Amino acid sequence: MSTPSVADLVATLRQQGFVVARNFASPSDVQALRAAALHDLEHAIAPIEYEADLKYPGAPASRDAAGGLTVRRLLDAYGRGPRFRQWATQPALAEVLRAYYGGRAPVLSTVHHNCIMTKHPMYGSLTGWHQDIRYWSFSEQDLVSCWLALGPETPANGGLFFLPGSHAAAYEAERFDGQKFFRDDLPANQEWIARAVSPELAAGDVVFFHCRTLHAAQQNRSQAVKLSLVHTYYPEDCHPLPGSRSASRPGVPLG
């Protein structure tokens, strides 16, 4: 990837809180990662988070209900094998993140995201507007996530929606509900939500987005499971707060 392209990606990420990098992953990488993800999904390779565990809108009421074993996330992607480790630490990712962090080396969080996101028809839930930083504990709030599409992503199959510029806004606590979702019943919030965009992704496209960028996803109205691979990074001089969940496992420095 050329330096001007990296500079453009970083400038857009800083301005709007997210940026799409088209064809970031090669077709061979996508094929290998998708095959490995489908294998682990088919064989229910732990650790797994189920839709019924979170109880978001549209999810089964319990694991014993119809669709109760619908997978939401295959956790610990980095620990699932060499293909996932290679992707999460590859030089092209490190180049973008190092540029964003002004030359500081990026570190992969093994606690937050670090998963294969699945979105199933019928029992895949709706995810309301939220900022990822809501449950994370770090010395600074400048984490960036990398979301790789392992197939097409559109609003119809549960693709991501973003609110441009929301990463730089200051919101009062009452703008969020008890679970720290951005309330869609408030006129001030509705003004923001009206600006939502949903970039359509092809297999191999990547979205970099800031941990404070408000984003959401609808249910999957297609006939196929949607698969995405997502990891989160922070700069080397940013640290998870001692005693927090964020500090429960060590990060992986990128060279």
Automatic annotation (TrEMBL):
Keywords annotated in UniProt: Dioxygenase, Oxidoreductase
Superkingdom of this protein's organism: Bacteria
Transmembrane segments: none
Cofactor(s) recorded in Swiss-Prot or TrEMBL: Fe(2+)
Example of a GO MF term: 2-oxoglutarate-dependent dioxygenase activity
Pfam families assigned: PhyH (PF05721)
PANTHER family named in the record: ECTOINE DIOXYGENASE, PHYTANOYL-COA DIOXYGENASE DOMAIN CONTAINING 1
Protein name: Ectoine hydroxylase
Provenance organism: Bordetella pseudohinzii
